[in-house]
Design goal:
- It is a single chain.
- The chain is an all-alpha fold.
- Helices cover about 75% and strands about 0% of the residues.
- It contains six helices and no strands.
- It has helices spanning about 1-5, 10-20, 25-35, 40-60, 65-85, 95-105.
- It is globular and about 45 Å long.
Length: about 110
């Protein structure tokens, strides 16, 4: 996934969000359920979460997000993804995901 996203010249975060949010949630759910009762799986999930957050922050930085907003915005995007994975079995409409990506990537009022 990262190789494909990094190969894009523009719109990397939006492409990542479309790919992640449109993906069926079964595998993410199963791994997280397994990690609840297994310490090693829990450590791996925490490590993957940290790597994913760092990658989202890097994409936000490349998109021009101010440094002081990187962590919070990356966390919000990731929380939205996790919420999506555990809350529904029906994939969202691609237009809905594109609109969400646009809202979360674009500078907000008061940002440069």
């Amino acid at each position: 996934v990262i190789v494909d996203i990094d190969a894009l010249e523009d719109g990397q975060l939006a492409a990542l969000m479309r790919r992640a949010f449109m993906n069926p949630p079964a595998l993410e759910r199963a791994i997280r359920a397994w990690s609840v009762g297994d310490e090693e799986a829990s450590r791996v999930v925490a490590s993957v979460d940290a790597e994913r957050l760092a990658y989202i922050e890097a994409l936000l930085a490349n998109a021009g997000t101010p440094v002081e907003h990187l962590s919070a915005r990356a966390s919000f995007i990731y929380w939205a993804y996790l919420g999506r994975m555990v809350s529904s079995t029906v994939p969202p409409d691609e237009g809905e995901v594109s609109a969400l990506a646009s809202l979360l990537i674009q500078p907000q009022p008061g940002e440069p």
